[in-house]
Amino acid sequence: MKKIYLICCLAVFFGIAGGISFFLIRDANAVIPANVSLINQNGETYNFGKDKTKLKLIEFIYTQCPDICPTTTQKMVDLKKDLVKSGVFGKDIEFITITIDPYRDTPEILQVYMKGFGINNDNHWMFLTGEKKNIKRDQSYINRVTDALQFQYKDPGNGQFVHSTFIYLVDQNNKFTAKFPMGKGFNKQDVYDKIIEKIR
């Protein structure tokens, strides 16, 4: 009886360990396709394969989100201040916020969202969406980014998206480096330390 119990325990242990290993390997090999292009808050094209000089901290939002998205954006604003003081923001790292609701979140709406947080409209924090005349194509491009980083989301039909609660750090080649909790779980110091570690 003890032998059967031990075998069952070992089977459960190895099953759990195998599952954890699968997810760790999957994340470690995640890469955003270099040929994905979207438009930013100014209607200009942003291509993920063009700039290979900076780390990217990637946030997924929708502007009508009532809680976790704006909380995360505000925490990123605070993080940006620390990175600016360190002299690395814009030089070694940029922020990218991608809407998961490109049908509603036009470049104009994204600019309003930015102003609400006092975010400068510059080339160091991009807010990305789809182009109206190519919205279905660009929605598929957004999905290629979310799929690469295993960010899950769904619109149940009322415009209030259900989505994953992580932001992502990728390297100069768009390869996954780390992920961090969104919302209240976002620890500014942890994210800052990981960014500085990767830069050095």
Automatic annotation (TrEMBL):
GO terms for molecular function: metal ion binding. Cu cation binds at residues 65, 69, 163. It comes from the Bacteria. Keywords: Copper, Disulfide bond, Metal-binding. Pfam families: SCO1-SenC (PF02630). Disulfide bonds join 65-69. InterPro entries: SCO1/SenC, Thioredoxin-like_sf. Belongs to the SCO1/2 family. PANTHER family: ELECTRON TRANSPORT PROTIN SCO1/SENC FAMILY MEMBER (PTHR12151), LINALOOL DEHYDRATASE_ISOMERASE DOMAIN-CONTAINING PROTEIN (PTHR12151:SF25). This is Electron transporter SCO1/SenC. It comes from Neobacillus vireti LMG 21834.
